[in-house]
Design brief:
This protein is mostly helical. The protein is about 75% helix and about 0% strand. It has helices at about 1-10, 15-30, 30-45, 55-65, 70-90, 95-110, 115-125, 130-150, 155-170, 180-189.
Length: about 190
Amino acid sequence: MMEGFIAKLSNISNRDLVNEGAQEFCLKLNTKSNRKKLVRALYGVSRNRLDLLPFHARLVRTLSPILPDIPTDLFTLLKKEFIYHLRKKDQNNLETKVKNIRFIGELCKFEMCEKSDALWCLRVLLEQFTHHNIEIACSLVECCGRYLFRSTDTHLKTNHLLDQMMRKKSCPQSRYKTDNYGGECLLLL
């Protein structure tokens, strides 16, 4: 039965289906092992299906009052993967890195992770603002930058990080052209 539910996750594409899925999980499938399987299934979403991330984050948000371990476990997995890719510094798997940071951004927008965690990710990416980190940082800003910028408690920090991003973009010593990334991200705000 749980396998059928996990198979349905790839077809969740609106709020009503998210609510039905959350209700079904809570009423019929709520066991500790199924919660772990659900977290693994959400974490393992295909890197080509970025359109599912907002709906999966909404599902996590809907389940969180009843099952608070799901957002915690999911964010822990995402943060570990983020740190792994950051330390590895390879130039492969860009789609996986973007999926990971977008999922963190969606969880941040649904308040399933701390805003400070998303800002920490952005700050770390700006410290090593080269290669894939440029696109990953822009994906995070595109995903939850407006939310962080307009929140009263994170406005100043976000503004500072965005200014730092634009300074790095326009730095003449930069070997990488970031015009396409940085400008588009800031226009979204």
